[in-house]
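User: Sequence in, structure out. Go.
Assistant: Echoing your sequence, followed by the structure tokens.
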Amino acid sequence: MIEEQPIVEIKHLSKFYKMGGETLKALDDVSFSVHHGDFVAIIGPSGSGKSTLMNMIGCLDVPDTGDYHLDGKDVFSLKNKQLADVRNQKIGFIFQSFNLLPKQTAFENVELPLIYRGLSGNERKEIVMSSLKKVGLEDRAHHRPTELSGGQQQRVAIARALAGNPPILLADEPTGALDSKTGAEVMNLMKELNKQGHTIILITHDLDIAKLAKQIIRIHDGRILAEKEAVLL
């Protein structure tokens, strides 16, 4: 039986920063993999390295050492234009602050990455409405962000991430700007999307949120912790 290739395969990533003449190690020999259909939470306190790691996974930054294969591609060998294409086609980003364009409707916000792909108007309309329907907001397609609640704005952001049908949804503190009830609703939606086959990588500092994932990766001082180390923290 042939073992399935991981969609995310990270080996020995390290990242250094210079601050005031001192060298700080943001990531320290990090290795892990994520398979199709996984729901993984990466959890750590402020300064643990989880944001740096998220930027690596999202192809927003490169390490000083290490390898990263995303859906079979050697990410760090790609040129800037190729990296931009990978971000557009392989990763659906979901941010804590939603990152919606305030003057654009929900429809137009979800449509934006599809315009970059050069899809026709009819193709875009079909995909956008399907994505909004997935998050229960097809009836809010022509509302602007200011006319939507925080939870609805995050759902629009999730619909935008889904629109390009990327292999990975990368969520950075997706409930951080929401109250607990709305946050729970968003996490229930994420779990449902995972059941539908979407691979999700969630970045969080909240253990209660992380426990909703199928797998938890703990990071501390730039290192992935072994299970026995994590229990001691």
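User: And one key feature?
Assistant: The chain has one domain: 8-232.
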